[in-house]
Amino acid sequence: MEKDLPTAAPAPQAEAVSLSSPVSALEGIGPKRAALLEQLGLRTLGDLLFHFPREYRDYRQITPIAEVRQGELATVEAEIIGMRHVRLPRRQSLAHLTLQDATGTMSATFFGRGFLVGTVFVKGARGLFTGKVSEYKGPCLANPEYELLTGDEEDLLNTGRLVPVYPAAEGLTQRMLRRWVRALLPLAAPLAAEALPGKLRARHGLPGMEEALREVHFPGSPENAASARRRLAFEELLVLQADILERRQSLRRESRAHPNRINGPLLKGLHRRLPFVLTGAQERAVSDIVSDMASPVPMLRLIQGDVGCGKTLVALHAVAVAADGGAQTAFMAPTEILAEQHAASLRELLEPMGLTVAVLTGNTPDSRRIRELVAGGGVDVVVGTHALFQESTRFKRLGLAVIDEQHRFGVCQRALLSAKGPRPDVLQMTATPIPRSLALTVFGEMDLTVIDEMPPGRQPVKTRRIPESKLPDLYRHIGKEAGLGRQTYIVCPLVEESAHRGGQTAVLRHFQELSEGPLAGVPAAVLHGRMCQEEKDAVLRAFRRGEVRVLFSTTVIEVGIDVPRATMMVIENAAEFGLTQLHQLRGRVGRGSETSYCFLLGKPKTPEGRERLEILCEHGSGFDIAEADLRLRGPGEVFGARQAGISDLRLADLILDARLLDLARREAAALIGKPKELNALRGSPFFGMQRQIQSA
């Protein structure tokens, strides 16, 4: 039977506080504790009320020590009757406890936490210990979760029930957080606005806000906890989706400052000059772009596609439409190497049709002259890096901004480029596929096109991990392939050796060792970011012509390098790279008709590193890898400039709540155009929290 909660501590009168009152308005929170709470972003009573548990511990079922069974998860309530601080090799230690209840004794060990003996763990203390039962001279719990009991009425918050576990900070205990939230609930929960229409709640079986807040913090059952969480997560996602759809509608009310000419001579000429037939997915993408540019509303579209699917060729159609209307195009790439690669591709197809293409980067020698030509309208397409959005770069009539590898630029940087013209069309591209549910959330104001088809003839890249014992065989194979005219990339994480990153391979030393050793006589070269642009260009030209058979490089070749005769990618210290980066590097091979390989070297130092390599070996699809990467790294700050890391959503999880997100999106679409319902939604506490995040 569930224990009753203790009576809440005396709290300020309801009329004296609001959700915006500081946390110090709650009894027991003085300046020092308020400062600790601020580390968690908890400044107001509303922040604390919406500081949700990250999990629950089920302390409803206490198992007598005499009845615990090996291999099972058990919670015992016991007294500490013995303890030892055990010192282990390599400066490690453990705490060993002897626990006793009315039925018997057992042990508990805490590896790496010997310092708890005599401080936290003391003889005579009682506590709850939860873990998997193993056997070590009798039943034993290894590294169990624990909750020490004080013998007062507050223990009813911490045992005999589903106990909430909150995100915390040093100096804040779970007991403190539970006590404060319990005191806050009767005071603040009634103040939280009910933003969801009654019919909507009834349709989806959602409890009211006040009930949901009570049950999410101190649920009466797992079912109650799940129902409360679902209701609150749904509201958070609904507020997010409604805001995105309103912004999108606002953008669609704007009109383009210049008319585009559809089916003009340049677009028709481009079709005639294409060296091969477009795939069905490319045709759909071109159709989407032309349709956007025919509309009076500025285009804002994201093209998603895996490495090598032909996004640049699709973007050329947008360039042709803009040029047919007399408008200039800015084509922005994250690296100088990629900008040069794009410029070469664009010149090949556009200059024979009379269009001028220029390059503008931080190292362009005649940048002043290029800027003057662009400002005067003497350049139709300018391809560049960050130099394009600098204040000194001006356009006469910018009508189209194409942003490649858009995730490599910040939100503000992309906006600066768009501001170079009066409401230009914007086409963003990424070779880092994002799961569709997340893309529609992060880029909800944009239209989305997915190119999910590869050009014919592209071979899947076979990916293998190579142990150190097999390296001589690998280098012999590279030399043999070089003799047959095939080419290899060898990628290293560092340019030079670093005392701070010991054990990682430096490209300069590796080039020297292999060129003088197992790859002696094989034409090889080095490429890295510290080289001047002229040196980089010379090395890449030699590699493209086949004069260089093995290219030692850092990650500067991650994007934009297209050499069909390169059939092998060797990645040193592979586990040190991110999963998406590994997939991008692998995408440099397999661009011709021959079977290609990606070899992953180095022993992972962490379980996460090992998992990344296993995922890469198992999956060839960038979309599958993106899903896995999302699980590993988290969806990121949805509203900010960053798109990786811990999500800034309070409760909803964009991975686990994909179906709920889809439901929220459909309900949000139904609310657009209904001012009364939208105004109620703006009263949601989640709405204010999202505004704070966006303005931070």
Verbal overview:
This protein is α/β, with parallel strands linked by helices and 696 residues long. Helix content is 37%, strand content 18%. It is built from 23 helices and 21 strands. The strands form four sheets. It has a seven-stranded parallel sheet with strand order 11-12-10-13-14-9-15, with helices on both faces. A six-stranded parallel sheet has the order 16-21-20-17-19-18, with helices on both faces. A five-stranded mixed β-barrel has the order 2-3-4-6-5. Helix 8 packs antiparallel against helix 10 (311-324). The radius of gyration is 31 Å and the shape is globular. The two termini are 46 Å apart.
Summarize the model shown.
With 696 residues, the protein is α/β, with parallel strands linked by helices.
Q: Roughly what is the average pLDDT, rounded to an integer?
A: 86
Number of helices: 23
Multimeric status of the protein: single chain
Report the portion of residues in β strands.
15-25%
List the uncertain runs. 9-15, 637-646
SSE inventory with pairings:
Elements: H1 31-38, H2 45-49, E1 55-58, E2 73-88, E3 92-101, E4 104-111, E5 126-135, E6 139-142, E7 145-149, H3 155-158, E8 162-165, H4 174-188, H5 198-204, H6 209-217, H7 222-253, H8 265-273, H9 280-294, E9 300-305, H10 311-324, E10 328-332, H11 336-350, E11 357-360, H12 367-376, E12 381-384, E13 398-403, H13 411-418, E14 425-430, H14 436-442, E15 447-451, E16 461-466, H15 471-483, E17 487-491, H16 507-515, E18 524-527, H17 533-545, E19 550-553, E20 566-571, H18 579-586, E21 596-601, H19 607-618, H20 622-633, H21 658-671, H22 675-682, H23 685-695
Parallel strand pairs: 4-6, 9-14, 9-15, 10-12, 10-13, 11-12, 13-14, 16-21, 17-19, 17-20, 18-19, 20-21
Antiparallel strand pairs: 1-8, 2-3, 2-5, 3-4, 5-6, 5-7
Helix pairs in contact: 6-7, 7-21, 8-10, 9-10, 19-20
